[in-house]
Design brief:
The chain is mainly β. It has strands spanning 3-7, 10-13, 18-25, 34-39, 46-51, 58-60, 68-73, 78-83, 92-100, 111-114, 118-123. Strands 2, 4, 5, 6, 9, 10 and 11 form a 7-stranded mixed sheet that branches. Strands 1-3-8-7 form a 4-stranded antiparallel sheet, with no helix packed on it. It is globular and about 40 Å long.
Length: 124
């Protein structure tokens, strides 16, 4: 059984930085793509960033390009999302997902296994 657990969320001020982490068990982490998603209040879940199994290919939503960085440590089976210059519109529940149908994408419908999320709140 695949288990996905996010951590690192919190309440921060505008312009601050935060690092989210995601641990995965129950599958060959080093062989699967991963993604970060978020759901803002009143909005649908949206893709933030994704990464291929080896970490050589990464993709970002336009809204976070230049501010967020996705990375992974396959030895530790961990996925990270470094967030900087946070804005109030980044306030959301952030989710980690794995087991994409084919290649990692920013489409949440393509992912099979999800964590429960970690809340990020950015205050001005």
């Amino acid at each position: 059984q695949v288990e996905v657990v996010e951590s690192g969320g919190g309440l921060v001020q505008t312009g601050s930085s935060l690092r989210l982490s995601c641990t995965v068990s129950g599958l060959r982490f080093e062989l699967t793509g991963m993604g970060w998603f978020r759901q803002r209040p009143g909005k649908e879940r949206e893709g933030v960033s994704c990464i291929n199994w080896g970490g050589s290919n990464t993709y970002y939503a336009d809204s976070v390009k230049g501010r967020f960085t996705i990375s992974r440590d396959n030895a530790k089976k961990r996925l990270y999302l470094e967030m900087s210059d946070l804005k109030s519109e980044d306030t959301a529940m952030y989710y980690c997902a794995t087991e994409p149908a084919y290649y990692p994408t920013l489409n949440p419908d393509e992912y099979k296994s999800w964590g429960r999320g970690t809340q990020v709140t950015v205050s001005s």
